[in-house]
Automatic annotation (TrEMBL):
Pfam families: ANF_receptor, Lig_chan, Lig_chan-Glu_bd. This is Ionotropic glutamate receptor C-terminal domain-containing protein. GO terms for cellular component: membrane. The lineage of its organism: Eukaryota, Viridiplantae, Streptophyta, Embryophyta, Tracheophyta. One of its GO terms (molecular function) is G protein-coupled receptor activity.
């Protein structure tokens, strides 16, 4: 807070513009004062919560953390890692940066599985405990959002804990690239602690102005015996911030602006402290100077200096850097113009229409921690993971799907086999335990089983569980591995394929009843016919044969019109027409007289 008080003392003098600070905490305090005094604040603090909406006189002269975290999230998504661990310094800069990262990862269907902050004055033992906790987590992708001093200390401790080996991924925010750019000589031990680490750096296009500034800076550094101190990206933004204010003042005075102040009666120190708030004055034409600053449009050492309506630089971009050996290697770029990763320079992309197709994303190969070129998987099964409780229905019927074997006490069935085979395909072990749901004397209610999963009594459920709309609103289902569709259940029976196959439609009892009914009909016809019909007379054996034959012919012989036609032809030779009564099977005769037809019915055949 001593630094912020020095800033406030400086504001006791009449100020028309403020350049800085870089610290997010101090920038928040100064923004309130600049807003009240109507003095434009040219800040290169990257804290995303600093906005011109809350502070109208705030102008950010370097990319916001929103864009930096979007670049980090794009790298995570590009390598298809879904969960990350975030380590951050517990202040406004760290907390707000991780909050921005969380939003960007969520937009890409990724998430921070574990986040841990630490104070700036954390002890070595505290940092060791922090790293041990992180090593027991599932994610092996670690985002490090701190300052240079605690960040380097964490990397050294992580290397001592073998957390810089195979399987780990370390992504540092721009604090690491700024440290490497600003220091020409870095100790070999420090470089060794960060092998394979990825970091991001605000993209500064190559230009003659940039080269001249770096040359002048190196000359001045040697002159004042600071040859090891070089320019980082922040230095270029500070340089352009000064020029932006100078150009705005030229335009301000050319447009008739004047510098005048007035006192504000609301500013007074009632505590009797060292601050003299009543000495602070309000800049009368601060709004006009602010407009001139926001209208800046020139090419500076950091690239194009131009602000949007929110007071942010247009076209923010970042370099994606891999640390390997004694140096760094740029593996690609991220630009807000396309919001994609590319190996094409951002300034070249600005000349073309934005192409936001994910198929265009590309980065160069990376040497990861452990000196391997194979992309790390990004996660492991945590050593402190709890045992998964799997609910399984203890069925009474259709035990082939799933059931409890009372003899062994194990769950068996088709669904269990599918589950165990799926687990065998995973590249890591999973500890689990089946828990039977139901008594086994009746099929359990599956909605109750699902509710136990919703209530976290079970971690998952296995079985022949139908996927319905109501259930999908509370649970996620796997792809169905049993699909019956529309089916008809029928008992399995071997079909007869020999000459007796015609007997299959009816059962034996049905055939017996059918045969008996025809025998009864034959017997009735015999009773009615044997007195008047010679065909139904004879020996008992002959009459029995006639009855059976008549019954058999009625079953298998269909009387047709041709049969009656032949009968009519035979009778016409005897001047008679013979008809056949279908109901009682009796013959009748019609005789025709030459002078007229006279019909007479007889029951006796002549």
């Amino acid at each position: 807070m001593m630094v912020s008080s020095e800033w406030l003392k400086f504001m006791e003098t009449d100020a028309i513009a403020i350049i800085g600070p870089q610290c997010s905490t101090i920038a928040h305090i100064i923004s309130y004062v600049a807003n009240e005094l109507q003095v434009p604040l040219m800040s290169f603090a990257s804290d995303a919560t600093l906005s011109s909406i809350q502070f109208p006189f705030f102008v950010r002269t370097m990319p916001s953390d929103l864009y930096e975290m979007a670049a980090v999230a794009a790298v995570v998504d590009y390598y298809q890692w879904k969960i990350v661990t975030a380590i951050y310094i517990d202040d406004d800069y760290g907390r707000n940066g991780i909050a921005a990262l969380d939003d960007e990862l969520t937009a890409r269907r990724c998430k921070i599985s574990y986040k841990v902050g630490f104070p700036s004055n954390a002890k070595r033992s505290d940092l060791l405990n922090l790293l041990v906790t992180v090593s027991n987590m599932e994610s092996r992708v670690i985002i490090l959002h701190t300052g240079a001093e605690p960040g380097l200390k964490l990397l050294a401790l992580a290397n001592g804990l073998n957390m810089m080996g195979n399987g780990y991924v370390w992504i540092a925010t721009d604090w690491l690239s700024s440290y490497l750019d600003a220091n020409s000589s870095v100790r070999a031990e420090t470089i060794n602690d960060m092998q394979g680490v990825l970091t991001v750096r605000p993209h500064i296009p190559k230009s003659k102005m940039k080269s001249n500034l770096m040359s002048k800076w190196n000359s001045l550094s040697k002159k004042y015996n600071h040859s090891d101190l070089r320019l980082s990206a922040y230095g270029f933004y500070v340089y352009d911030s000064v020029w932006a204010v100078a150009r705005a003042l030229d335009s301000f005075f050319d447009d008739g602006g004047r510098i005048s102040f007035k006192n504000d009666s609301r500013l007074r120190d009632e505590t009797g402290g060292s601050l003299h708030l009543e000495a602070m004055s309000v800049f009368d034409m601060g709004k006009k100077l602010l407009d001139k600053i926001r209208q800046a449009n020139f090419t500076g050492a950091s690239g194009q200096v131009q602000f949007n309506a929110q007071g942010e630089l247009i076209h923010p971009a970042y370099d994606i850097i891999s640390i390997i050996g004694n140096g760094v290697r740029t593996i690609g770029f991220w630009s807000n113009y396309t919001r994609l990763l590319s190996t094409v320079l951002p300034e070249d992309l600005y000349l073309k229409p934005p192409n936001t197709s994910l198929a265009n994303q590309h980065l160069y190969d990376v040497i990861w921690p452990g000196e391997t070129a194979q992309k790390p998987r990004g996660w492991v099964f945590p050593s402190n993971a709890k045992e998964l409780i799997i609910g399984v229905p203890n069925r009474f019927s259709f035990k082939e799907f799933v059931t409890l074997d009372n003899a062994t006490g194990k769950m068996t069935g088709y669904c269990i086999d599918v589950f165990t085979q799926a687990l065998s395909l995973l590249p890591y072990p999973v500890t689990y335990r089946f828990r039977a749901f139901g008594t086994g004397t009746a099929n359990p209610h599956y909605d109750q089983l699902i509710q136990k999963v919703v209530d976290n009594e079970f971690d998952a459920a296995i079985g022949d569980i139908a996927i319905t709309m109501n259930r999908t609103q509370t649970l996620d289902f796997t792809q169905p591995f049993i699909e019956s569709g529309l089916v008809i259940l029928a008992p399995v029976k071997k079909h007869i394929t020999n000459s007796w196959a015609f007997l299959q439609p009816f059962t034996l009892g049905m055939w017996c009843v059918t045969g008996l009914s025809f025998l009864v009909v034959g017997a009735v016809i015999w009773v009615l016919e044997h007195r008047i019909n010679d065909d139904f007379r004879g020996s008992p054996r002959q009459q029995l044969i006639t009855i059976v034959w008549f019954s058999f012919s009625t079953l298998f012989f269909a009387h047709s019109e041709k049969h009656y036609e032949r009968l009519r032809t035979w009778c016409s030779d005897h001047m008679a027409i013979c008809c056949f009564d279908h109901s009682i099977q009796l013959y009748r005769k019609s005789y025709f007289h030459p002078n007229g037809a006279t019909t007479r019915y007889f029951y006796k055949r002549t």
